[in-house]
Task: inverse folding
């Protein structure tokens, strides 16, 4: 394209060969007057330590990010992100000064280059046109590429002592963000007393500083990171349950209109009602249209855990009456009301459970599960008048697929169902 005047390139670079390819492209457009580059370079997995550990300065840009011969250059506009370990103030000053002593940049008066280090994502930012510093706090865990910042809709944040500063200014700084995922502590790999201290410090901040915050643009809250069939609720300490419930109550109360709610364990919602209902804003969950969480097994576990599902429909009917979509993660069967007998003897419970599990493939057991599943679905529809879609990730024996399908066709003739061994989808 010999008459081309302006060329803009936005790209990720992960390998040495891609730097070579970049150079080849630029040498083929060396006749342009205006060159604009937006590059995200991450060479941390390269074997060449020289490339892996280098920093972007005037020499780097001249070698890899410019044509060897530039005949008509008038404007050279670049913004480069480079993955690196750490940049000190001295490193930054040295990098900026390198453009003031490099002949090419001096001759064309491109010496006002700015450099900045993002400690959250461990990226060097270097720009010829001004710095786009990310608006971050200590609580942000990660975010998308800065070039796509205006398109980012979600942030993942940590519960830490600066969370009050973060949330108080959230609507002003992040009007384009509609979703927040909170790390509830599991990713810190803390347990026991350490986990209690983590929760307590978070609660202290929330209790005293955040009771009057209302998030105008947030419509989705996400608590937890392990949404899967094998997710198991392990923190049984009452003190931890109380503290976590109060934290969740404060956070859930902040959005003016919460539409999507993902919470790792259904028990956490029950704990809010049990321990922190006075901290939860009235009707805070009323606007929820989508809910997702993990439910414990109806077959394995303690008598208490296998009975958790019996509270599902009553909770949803009371607190999320306009719910339209529900996604549940189960380790086993699709019904959430357990028909397992209560085994009173603690020491023999596993033996009795194993014996009962062997009976699940009998005709009688399958018929009982079909009956209880029909009951669960009927109760769900009666309580939630706007409900349209149920999505369950679980695991059943192949023998149950057709009995469940036949039950749906008989009792919900206007619905559409897709049943597999590991998933149940029902559109009402």
Result:
């Amino acid at each position: 394209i010999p008459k081309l005047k302006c060329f803009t390139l936005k790209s990720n670079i992960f390998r040495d060969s891609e730097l070579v390819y970049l150079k080849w492209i630029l040498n083929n457009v060396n006749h342009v007057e205006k060159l604009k580059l937006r590059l995200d370079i991450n060479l941390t997995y390269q074997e060449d330590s020289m490339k892996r550990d280098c920093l972007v300065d005037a020499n780097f840009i001249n070698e890899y990010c410019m044509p060897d011969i530039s005949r008509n250059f008038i404007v050279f506009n670049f913004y480069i992100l480079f993955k690196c370990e750490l940049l000190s103030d001295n490193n930054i000053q040295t990098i900026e000064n390198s453009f003031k002593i490099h002949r090419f940049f001096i001759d064309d008066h491109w010496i006002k280059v700015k450099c900045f280090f993002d400690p959250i994502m461990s990226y060097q930012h270097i720009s010829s046109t001004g710095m786009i510093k990310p608006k971050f706090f200590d609580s942000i865990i990660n975010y998308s590429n800065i070039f796509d910042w205006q398109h980012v809709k979600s942030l993942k944040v940590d519960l830490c002592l600066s969370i009050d500063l973060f949330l108080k200014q959230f609507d002003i700084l992040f009007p384009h963000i509609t979703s927040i995922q909170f790390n509830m502590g599991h990713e810190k790999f803390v347990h026991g007393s350490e986990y209690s201290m983590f929760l307590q410090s978070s609660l202290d901040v929330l209790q005293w500083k955040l009771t009057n915050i209302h998030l105008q643009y947030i419509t989705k809250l996400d608590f937890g990171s392990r949404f899967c069939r094998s997710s198991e609720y392990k923190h049984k300490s009452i003190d931890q349950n109380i503290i976590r419930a109060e934290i969740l109550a404060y956070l859930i109360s902040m959005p003016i209109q919460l539409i999507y709610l993902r919470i790792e364990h259904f028990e956490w919602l029950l704990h809010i009602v049990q321990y922190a209902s006075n901290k939860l804003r009235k009707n805070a969950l009323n606007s929820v249209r989508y809910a997702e969480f993990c439910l414990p097994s109806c077959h394995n576990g303690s008598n208490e855990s296998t009975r958790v599902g019996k509270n599902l429909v009553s909770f949803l009917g009371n607190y999320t009456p306009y719910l339209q979509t529900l996604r549940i993660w189960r380790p086993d069967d699709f019904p959430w009301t357990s028909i397992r007998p209560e085994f009173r003897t603690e020491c023999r419970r596993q033996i009795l459970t194993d014996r009962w599990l062997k009976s699940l493939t009998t005709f009688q057991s399958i018929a009982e599960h079909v009956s209880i599943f029909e009951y669960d679905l009927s109760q769900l529809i009666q309580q939630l008048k706007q409900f349209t879609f149920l999505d369950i990730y679980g695991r059943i024996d192949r023998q149950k697929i057709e009995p469940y399908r036949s039950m749906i066709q008989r009792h919900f003739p206007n619905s559409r169902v897709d049943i597999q061994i590991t998933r149940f989808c029902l559109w009402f």
Remarks:
- Residues 187-192 have pLDDT under 50 and may be disordered.
- The radius of gyration is 28 Å.
- The first strand starts at residue 6 and ends at 13.
- The CA atoms of residues 358 and 365 lie 10 Å apart.
